[in-house]
Specification:
Shape: elongated
Number of helices: 1
Radius of gyration: 12 Å
Mean pLDDT: 75
Structural class: mainly beta
Low-confidence stretches: none
Number of strands: 6
Helix content: under 10%
Distance between the termini: 30 Å
Order of helices and strands: EEEEEEH
Strand order of the largest sheet: 1-2-5-6
Length: 71
Amino acid sequence: MIQACFDGWISVGIHIDPWHRRDAKSGIYFGPYIDFHLICFIISLGVNPKYSGRIDVGCSVSRGGIPAVES
């Protein structure tokens, strides 16, 4: 991940996760994916990137946003 923060809250960066993993709770696979961070927006491209947020909710705030909801 490469990320820069300006003025305390303006964030610009890129996060690349090349791994293919499985969410232990739902069993859904996700990754690889790439996140583009711009100000307060995150654009994610890849295989089910929304499911990677559950890991971050428990250990960090790197993805931001709201946790993914299973249907």
